[in-house]
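Q: What does the assembly look like in three dimensions?
Context provided by user:
Components: two
Sequences:
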Amino acid sequence: MKELKSAILMCLLFTVLCGGLYPAVVTGLAQTLFPHQANGSLITDANGQAVGSELIGQPFTGPHYFWPRPSATAEFAYNPMASGGSNSGPSNPAFLATVAERVEALRATGVTGPIPADLVLASASGLDPHISLEAAQLQIPRIAKMRNLPEDAVASLVAGHTEGRQLGLLGEPRVNVLLLNRALDSQS
Amino acid sequence: MTLPNDLLQFFGLLAAVLLLARPLGTFMARVYNGERTFLSPVLAPCESLFYRICGVDRNDEMGWQRYALAMLLFNLVLFLALMGMLLAQPALPFNPQGLPGLSWPLALNTAISFITNTNWQNYSGESTLSYFTQVVGLTVHNFVSAASGMAIVIALIRGFVRRTTDTIGNFWVDLTRSVLYILLPLSLIGAVFLVSQGAIQNFSGYKTAALTQPISYDKPKLNEQGAPMLDQAGKPLTESATAKEVSIPMGPVASQEAIKELGTNGGGFFNANSAHPFENPTPLSNFMQVLFILLIPAALTRTFGVMVGNPRQGRALLGVMLFLFIVAFGVLHASELASTPMLHKLGVAGGNLEGKELRFGLAGTNMFEVATTATSCGAVTAMHDSLTPLGGLVPLSLILLGEIVFGGVGCGLYTMLAFAIIAVFVSGLMIGRTPEYLGKKIEVREMWMSIVIILVAGIVVLILSGIAMITPSAVASMSNPGAHGLTEVLYAMASMANNNGSAFAGLSSNTNFYNLLGALAMLIGRYVPAVAVLAMAGGLAGKKYVPPSLGTLPTDKFPFAFWLTLVILIVGALTFFPALALGPIVEHLSMMGVN
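A: Here is the predicted structure of the complete assembly.
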């Protein structure tokens, strides 16, 4: 059983190489070159306490905050311990009823015209930190009213938090909701 | 969502794949032929050390039976090691969250899933697996299951190249070279690049973050045993709770992410897989991941061409793959852009974004979904269950065709070569000559093996889906009603039998039924074709070379590529059309009836 001996030894060696050495080298390089990213792109407050990550969305429901995309994570929306989507099929009646409810909730705040899809359809990870530019602009009048700010001031804040396409080509223009809302809080 | 920009992204991706695949493919041919490369000064001593420790003689050529035995024994050892690790998780280090061991059916399914390069996941990573299991277990399996596939296809290519011999190479040498020279260096570069974009890489415990706005929610009430309590109507009781802070999971993600794509493995560190911002943070990281998924399968067509001494042979296969890839993207992108009439009726504008991440846009998402099912990767950036009916038909069809459009590392090309042999044989029948491919006569043995390679997965899919349909507990696992539920089951069986690993994830598949039947599907789908390929390689290597004559069908020209495409589509349609008609096609037609 020469081959069995080789199989066991190969398994051990590859475990050392790919399961020990390789992740150690990657971790070392990551922590040296990109420590902020490697540790979760965390946002901290004035006391150094973590208040979230630039990459992980948070559930905002208050009318004086920009609302993020719906999230289907278990227990509560934007639960980072339970990433995942709704897995609802497009013709599922329960799914369509949920979307209709979300549309109604938006209409109740005075929104007219077509609704940007991202504001009423849940993301894949349930943690999507972004909304589209249209979805942010549509909420500006509500925020301005609730916070007694001129609409222009809110609009320029949104513009300042808009990320364009990466390299001018990839992805879609988008707004990071957590960063935008924190900027709102620090302004008023 | 401008269409010109979408197309620019898509064709930019294809250009990048083709540009990189050529030099990589040539490099890989040199590696497998044992020639010196620019990495040899560093890696050759490392390689020799491997052979010395493991008692391998690199000039010890194997016949196909011994090659297959070595491959199977190696996979058996890997299976036992991973199974042990999953069951003994609490006793092992690097488990800051104190996660418990897995139940045995789940451990069995997971271990088989990772040795077979499937990476079907009936668990969610952040709440089930420790860092030790993820790194020492799964990351290692991502490397070696990919390398096993590469070794097998190289053995098959040698079968075409060699004449009147009974050996096809040494499994240990092919395996070691695949990991050392190809997978490890590329993964290292990819992992560091992913971190630069925001993918995490650490061994810290999970972080706690205070929410900017605390959120109140209904929490299910639990009894003393921790089971949910029900009211008289059988509905779960809830109490209101407020979340002031959340736990943010951490871990060595990037190192696993790179090999997950490169080895077409697809098993995510987190439940949301490549949709999770810590796995796939930016549009650029998404582009790179798609590139990594397609890179080695595309390069292998070049390796094949170089090794058989005529790069045009590889290019013909690559052309077929590109054509099918572009068609698949076109159909998926068009139907996701169009969204559904039900959403339009509600006043929702724009494409179907349910189960998709905004940062990638529809183009980035759809590129990923086509690549991941055209190969045997199975990582996802979108939830396939929430695709439009015709959109969902695309990944399902790509998997059912046998993942030959680029295909899994190694297994994609060997399945494509089996299709090429069938195509040569059928055309040979038409012109009444003994069919030949690459100077080797195609006879009974080659035909038998090719049919096994192509049809085994399909037979498993149809039989197991049928069994699921008559098993009440399996039907109860569906999360969506009607035709869509059938698609969920069909997709699950197709994904496991073809070693893909993506899912219509609404299906609650962490049940004994799906864990055990799925494990069987993955085993048959991986090892039966693999052994058939090696048997074919052994037979081919023993044949003598037949020089091309006037009556030989040229297999490196457009007419053959066209013919091969037709054969692939006809075989696929004949096998699966009835099942697809009952699932996604019926759902699409009834959806259109809404108007």
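Follow-up: The mean pLDDT of chain A is 94.
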